Amino acid sequence: MDTLDMDSIQEVMLSLFDQLCMYSPGSDEYEAINQIAFGYYHLIRRYQDVDETFDIKEMKQRADSSWLERGSFVDTAWRFYETGTMSIEILKDDELQKTYFHVRDKTVLREEVKDRFNYEVDRSSPTNKLREFLAWSKAIMDDIMYQKKILSQPVSRFFVKSGYYMSMLAIFISFLIAILILSTWVDPALVEQPPSSTHLFIRGDNSTYTKVEPGYRSALQKYEPAALNMPIEKLLTYILGGLHNIISLGVVISFFLSNQPRMPTIAGIQQWFKATFTTSTQEKEYDEEEEAESQLQIHLFSFQTLYHILFFVFSILGTIYYGYFFSFHLLHITQNNQLLKRVIMAVTRNGLSLLWVFILGMIFLYIYALVAFGFFRDLHDPNSGMQCSHMYECFINLVHKGMILSTLEMFWEEDISAKSYGWNIGKALFDFSFFIIISTIGLNIIFGIIVDTFSELRDSKWQIDQDMRNSCFICSRESYDFEHHPGGFEKHVKQEHYQWAYLFFFIHLRNTRINDYSAIELYVHRQLLKDNISFFPLNRAMSLEDEEDSNEAKIDTLLQKVNYIMEKMKAQEALKFYEEEERKQQEWIQRNAAGKAP
């Protein structure tokens, strides 16, 4: 490394950047020069890692005067190389090594993909996180390749990049329409009467007479609010509705371009049934690669696809039918709000459990309907809508009004003097058991499932946020380990062990020919083929190596001192024991000598 002339390498690097400015990105000449130029830049960065005294700022000032005379050309060139470069740490042969690589476009990694990965990856152990990262990376790289293809076209790039803003604009227009409806709609009967019609009739004596018949509204016209008969409100509604139709179409196009919904495969359907209806943990385990693909892949018949299709269809229907269907689009606020998403997930996540509870509740209601039909149908008042002349009427009324009015109010008779005491006891048991089983226990079971699910989601999010805030995803070292280093934990997770830099490195390997691999790149490539995570610096970081070496030296010195003290104490104990034994022997000799004396 001492023989390298860094100033000459910088001159070549600046000259190559000057040539890059003459070619358009994507051309063969540009790509060839670009690869060579970044190779020189990475060489300078590796030299900087080896020689701590090397200063890049001083080297910039030593650049040729022809470059310095061009204003900020040198800084622009260096900034170009810095923004297009990432670095990662690789563990090879039990040694940490740092490698630099070129990243062409960092924007192809969507933020929604990052969020889904961060909140859905298995964080139960450090190795599980890395295995999940490898499994997800294959699906994410396929998504990135697809995004590059989409973003290469100007029209598709417009829809993909503006999808979020069109969603916000659609919500805003929906609220404007809602405000217009709240402030202008009135009952047509309060404003105008339908036009009447006059008919001419002929009597038997050939005389004539007229008869005025009141007008009436058709089945569709009676739902038309009176305010829309006014020109201003009607025109404003159609203007907002037409704009809403265009924006909704853009939202749907953006969704289909960004996610590319596909027809579900047989294996995917089997996997969905296994994950939904299987309770055994062992049977739920399936291939991690298939799981990762299913996380990003959206099927043509999935809820998200059907939702966006209805989003556009309801927008058209809202324009046609006076604005009624625009109320559906107000629910779109849940798509971009994590709190509201968790509220909905609290209901849908345990949807199967709620479905079985609902079926059980329907069974109980059917049993109570049978009892009501057999013993209490004479208490129903058809004039108040309490029909029970047929079994299905009893069942529907009990489902409809039993949860609200309770059976005490549904089957009520003021004069019960003709009823026997046994009948009253049966009626009391019927009302009391319905209140306990259906109104109290049944509803509390449903509320309990929803509340427990919401608490579980909240705790899960808190644990994930804590893990992201206090633990490195790659090495799993805690944040306090980096408190005494420049930049701290934030620098470590954003530069040294940036998890998405490893993903871009995998993309770099995919786009590079094997013959052009460096030794580290070839090593990582072979590990990826075997799905081996041993190249990740688990529990290690280069910024902590010196500190760990210093700590190990201190520990060795401390152990030596402790061993010396222990040996010294053992020698003193042995000497004390020897002196004690010597003293006892002298006392025994003296006693024997005194006993033998005359």
How do the strands and helices of this protein lay out in sequence?
Layout (H helix, E strand, L loop, with lengths): L5 H15 L7 H23 L5 H6 L3 H4 L4 H11 L1 E8 L2 E8 L8 H10 L5 H26 L2 H8 L1 H22 L3 H4 L5 E6 L5 E6 L17 H29 L6 H12 L3 H4 L3 H9 L6 H18 L17 H11 L2 H25 L15 H20 L10 H50 L17 H9 L2 H13 L7 H11 L15 H52 L2
Antiparallel strand pairs: 1-2, 3-4
Helix pairs in contact: 1-2, 7-14, 8-11, 9-11, 11-15, 16-19, 17-18, 17-19, 18-19
Whole-angstrom Rg: 40 Å
Please state the overall shape, judged from the principal axes of the Cα atoms: flat
For the termini, the CA-CA separation is: 96 Å
Helix content: 55-70%
Number of helices: 23
Q: Can you describe this structure?
A:
- By secondary structure, the protein is mainly α.
- Helices cover 66% and strands 5% of the residues.
- The chain has a two-stranded antiparallel ribbon. A two-stranded antiparallel sheet has the order 3-4.
- β3 and β4 form a beta hairpin.
- α17 packs antiparallel against α19.
- The longest helix is centred in the last third of the chain and has 52 residues.
- About 3% of the residues have low confidence.
